[in-house]
Fold:
Amino acid sequence: MKNFVEELQWRGMVHDVMPDTETHLLEQMRSAYVGFDPTADSLHIGNLVPIMLLSFFQRSGHRPVALVGGATGMIGDPSGKSNERNFLDEKTLRHNQACVRAQLSQFLDFTSGAENEALLVNNYDWMKEFSFLDFIRDVGKHITVNYMMAKDSVKSRFSGENADGLSFTEFTYQLVQGYDFLHLFKNQNITLQMGGSDQWGNITTGTEMIRRIGGGKGYALTCPLITKSDGSKFGKSEGGNVWLDAKRTSPYKFYQYWLNTSDDDAEKYIKIFTFLDKETIDALVAAHKEAPHQRALQKRLAQEVTTTVHSEEAYNTAVSASEILFGKSTSDDLKKIDADTFLDIFEGVPQAEVSRKQISDGLDIIGALAEQTGFLKSNGEARRALKENSISVNKEKVQEGFSISEGDLLNDRFVLLQRGKKNYFIISIV
Structure:
């Protein structure tokens, strides 16, 4: 049994922890849970902190439980949010649950049969038959309105310039989440709930229910909310959320997100989002400070997270794709890249459409550079560039007289033109 709390502390992952939690966990194998919102069919990197909490918990010898909030997801958590969530039908909910489990299985052992094998539960399963009258009789009467109003997550919705208050539905959120903890305490012997620091109020409502209704003792541990050193929101890119699903965020873009992390953030993130031990991380930090231009921290961080979330193959493809744009690469490297990754790499690069017949007939390089695409302003400029040996087709230098044919198509769709090192243009076949 490893010291779980100690592990989190050196990684900078403890914000609040209830007294005696560390002792409680060192006594024997315990069970803890974290809740996840099932309103999408993919988690995003904002969910990685609670995922890592569960994973470190299991690696310390304990049993992790992931709760999909099918019931609470229909209500809306008032913590830092201004709008209620949309109602999900059960079919969508079950689909999202299956997708979440598949992503969690990259981090957690659900199938080995070990004593501390992970478990996935959905609070919709025990809340859907709970009538309103039963709930206010068996649960609501034990928690006062004064107690609920004192929570920061509730108070914050009544203060500030944009305070619109919150609905009764949202107000009862902490009762539903608190009941989850009580239910899991009684039925799964779960004694610890974990989450982000904004969840402390909801989690401690659960420990209070366990004390008042269950006659037992529950524990709470929260981690800091992750921020970026420049003040922008962690987990967001120009295109919105950075998702764990490769269909929503390609492994290339996922890898690039971590690779482009600042030095300060990389030093923090590599402790939180990887399973590397303290000795390895300390050595990486020292090496990075000696030669920050080599970006050893960012490269290792991107490698570890991309490999864990996707695969080693996806990581290798992302590295190859990065070298296409930023390093030395060949036509063979380009041909290995799938169409979606190709478009991700050259996002924002100007394009022109050319018919397949023109390619089949052989598209003269002068026309491809100027008249047919507008990449260069004139045939004269195209000839000068060719004489300067500055034109490449699919990363290979070409001369005047060259014709683009079907054999030059990448993914049977694209041709990559290039002038010099950084001036790219894409011919798209229609």
